[in-house]
Design goal:
The complex is a heterodimer of chains A (493) and B (235). Chain A is α+β, with helices and mostly antiparallel strands. Chain A has twelve helices and 14 strands. In chain B, the strands form three sheets. Chain B has a five-stranded parallel β-sheet with strand order 2-1-3-4-5, with helices on both faces. In chain B, strand 7 and strand 8 form a beta hairpin. Classes of the chains: A alpha+beta (493), B alpha/beta (235).
């Protein structure tokens, strides 16, 4: 794209508009003056024509015909291009004209109107025609009826165009003299006006990955038009900074977990190397090291799962998803936790009606329930119960996972979905948790555009609700079923 | 030497303890949370504390601060997975003597813990010479007049501790406190057995006796002064 400078554009616009204005002024003023001068000229012309007519008189002796005293014609304005006139009587018995002027010049006279323009020897002339002018000489011996005269008078208009030209030159000169300082003023004020914009641009330019400071200058803040821009930059920066911080924290936390897990593995093999050992000791050591390795592998898997789930949560799921039964995924997850639950003497119960159709990847949902169940089973006391209740209301399916375990403290509850967060570090460490399960669950729910809610009472247990949109095509046939068969579970909300 | 290891990662704590026992002949106690660690540290005379920072119940840093407030002079080695400058500075300010970043090398860990123990006893060299007896703490070798002396693990612990005490008389109680971990049944006559064995291995056939018994007070390892207080061979 072509680079344009706003300042230059504005200045160009101002220059062009001022020049246009000056030109228009010259044109309008010239036009106006021309009209003024011409009407004055016309009046003058009429006066001269009349004065020519006034020179005609009857002979004193009472004879027929007219007398015309050409010497009394008022002197022409112009030395070289003389005025031209022609006087004739309506009876055709008297025609007088001036100088070398060809009387046929007046033949070009328009049919209508009093004035017309023509060229005479390359000079512009303006002419007037006065028709039916009576002879002013009112003698007794005037013939009857009174003869009428036609007077035509033309004078060079050179004077007018000369004056118009001079006037235009004057106006143009004055315009230029006025436009120059006004342009300077305007350019200065444009530059001054653009100072906030420039300062904002400079400030925005200084933003980088290392420098999150965005402090627009006072001038920029004072400009109302820039406010939305400043607000937008602020918002974007804050968002970016937040996600950068989160990313950094994640990397820091991940590094910490990886280091810890790797430290254990390393310490295991290095302490095995302290001294020569028996085969049995080596066997034991290797078993320990493979456990450590598995733990490390588990951590890596979890971190990959989380990264994948977060990716899906942020960008949406771009896979072709089938309509599946949500209850079946719950059953699968329960089957997978069953062994651990049995070892700890914890009962896992599934309360549900018919199948609930959702469009999802069954592996994702199974992982989701498994994460909740792992937490519940870990928090539960021997002999207690973990319940999974699936209900459907309208276009949403709700899965409630509840336990009667140790619960989560009020201060920890808002943070349980954060990464690497453990409710009670001492317990979670020994059970091999990494504090990633609920963060993964949170991201999966987000990816499927569902909602997640947790409630817990210390010492009484924890409840987690997941709301997922169901596939609407299969909605009608399941609605009634649910109401009848699950009156108890719907009251859990 | 007796060391307390406080780390909530049990496997790591056990591996560290095993290495300390096997490679520097230390008696090692383990604690898996901050409170237990503080309790053990307060109630036993340790020669070194190995502390993890991220501990349940009471953080390593807090434990360290409280421990130092009690006036304890025992050197403290911190295990940390975070190597940011601020946390290192706050650690050292809180009274830590050294730190090691995870994942650490066991060899380096042992070297650092030995150095800390040594410095805690006012000893800067890794070898000590008492008369014609030479002790090399790094290689755990005891040599007299150029002849290496083979010692059992416990015998070495006794002679190492006595050597670190710089000729001072060390009571049986002190010896057993620094040579055995928390779980050991303390029989004071066991110490006498080790002393007798050491005397046999180190002093036999030598005119200059190095191991001395102060009756009712304890033992010392030193070159006998001409007018030594109650020096001389034991019964």
């Amino acid at each position: 794209m072509k680079n344009i400078s706003l300042t230059k554009r504005l200045i160009a616009a101002v220059v062009v508009s001022q020049l246009l204005l000056a030109t228009a002024l010259v044109v309008v003023a010239s036009f106006y003056c021309f009209h003024q001068l011409q009407s004055a000229f016309d009046v003058n012309l009429e006066g001269r024509a009349l004065s020519v007519a006034a020179l005609i008189h009857y002979p004193d002796d009472g004879g027929a015909g007219f007398l015309f005293d050409a010497a009394k014609i008022p002197p022409a304005h112009h030395e070289i291009h003389k005025d031209i006139y022609l006087v004739k009587s309506d009876r055709g018995d008297f025609v007088r004209h001036a100088g070398e002027a060809d009387p046929h010049l007046f033949d070009a006279m328009p049919a209508k109107g009093q004035y017309w323009d023509f060229d005479q020897q390359g000079e512009p002339y303006r002419a007037i025609i006065l028709r039916d002018v009576p002879v002013l000489d009112k003698e007794r011996n005037a013939p009857h009826p009174l003869p009428k005269l036609t007077v035509m008078y033309a004078a060079p208009t050179m004077d007018i165009s000369q004056r118009i030209r001079e006037l235009a030159e004057w106006i143009a000169l004055a315009s230029i003299l006025l436009v120059a300082p006004s342009l300077l003023l305007t350019i200065g004020s444009i530059r001054r006006t653009l100072v906030p914009l420039n300062s904002l641009a400079d400030e925005a330019q200084s933003i980088s990955v290392d420098n999150w400071q965005f402090r627009p200058s006072e001038e920029a803040k004072a400009a109302r038009e820039l406010q939305p821009l400043i607000d937008a930059i602020d918002t974007v920066l804050a968002g970016l900074q937040r996600s950068f911080k989160r990313q950094r924290e994640f990397v820091g936390d991940a590094a910490h977990e990886l280091k810890t897990s790797f430290t254990i593995l390393k310490s295991s093999w290095q302490s095995l190397q302290n001294q020569p050992r028996t085969a049995e000791e080596y066997r034991l050591g290797l078993t320990e090291m493979s456990e450590d390795g598995e733990r490390l592998e588990q951590l890596l898997n979890r971190m990959l799962l989380l990264a994948r789930a977060e990716q899906s949560a942020a960008d949406g799921i771009h896979r072709d998803l089938d309509v599946i039964d949500l209850v079946a995924t719950c059953e699968m997850a329960i089957a997978r936790i069953r062994k651990v639950a049995d070892e700890r003497e914890i009962e896992v119960e599934l309360v549900t009606s018919d199948q609930v159709s959702v469009r999802a990847d069954p592996a994702d949902l199974e992982l989701l329930w498994l994460n909740f169940l792992e937490n519940s089973v870990q928090a539960s006391f021997a002999g207690s119960k973990v319940k999974v209740v699936v209900t459907q209301e309208g276009s949403f399916a709700t899965v409630l996972v509840s336990d009667e375990g140790s619960g989560i403290t009020k201060s920890d509850l808002p943070h349980i979905f954060e990464r690497f967060r453990r409710g009670d570090p001492s317990r979670s460490r020994t059970t091999g948790g990494f504090g990633l399960g609920l963060a993964i669950a949170n991201s999966i729910v987000e990816a499927y555009k569902g909602t997640l809610r947790a409630d817990s009472t210390l010492g009484q247990g924890t409840k987690m609700w997941v709301c997922l949109p169901v596939e609407s095509a299969c909605l009608e046939m399941e609605d009634e079923d649910l109401e009848v068969r699950l009156p108890a579970s719907s009251s859990a909300h | 030497m007796r060391v307390l290891v406080v780390d909530d990662e049990k496997r790591l704590a056990e591996n560290v303890a095993r290495t300390l026992r096997e490679r520097s002949s230390c008696a090692v106690d383990l604690a898996h949370d901050g409170l237990e660690g503080l309790f053990l540290a307060e109630s036993n005379p340790y020669d070194l504390l190995v502390l993890d920072l991220m501990l349940p119940l009471l953080s390593g840093l807090e434990l360290l601060k409280r421990y130092r407030q009690l006036g304890a002079k025992t050197p403290v080695l911190i295990l940390t997975a975070r190597d940011e400058k601020e946390s290192v500075i706050s650690l050292l300010n809180a009274g830590a003597d050294d730190y090691i970043c995870k994942p650490f090398d066991m060899g380096e860990f042992i070297a650092r813990s030995k150095a800390l123990i040594r410095r805690g006893k006012g000893e800067h060299s890794s070898t000590i010479r008492i008369g014609d007896l030479e002790l090399d703490f790094n290689r755990r070798r005891v040599v007299r007049k150029g002849i290496p002396i083979r010692l059992s693990n416990m015998e070495y612990r006794v002679v190492e501790y006595l050597a670190h005490r710089n000729g001072a008389t060390v009571s049986k109680t002190e010896l057993s406190e620094h040579l055995y971990d928390y779980n050991w049944e303390k029989f004071s006559n066991v110490i006498e057995v080790y002393i007798a064995a050491l005397r046999r291995k180190i002093d036999r056939g030598d005119a200059v006796k190095l191991i001395h018994t102060s009756r009712g007070m304890g033992y010392s390892l030193r070159v006998d002064y001409p007018n030594g207080d109650e020096g001389g061979p034991a019964k």
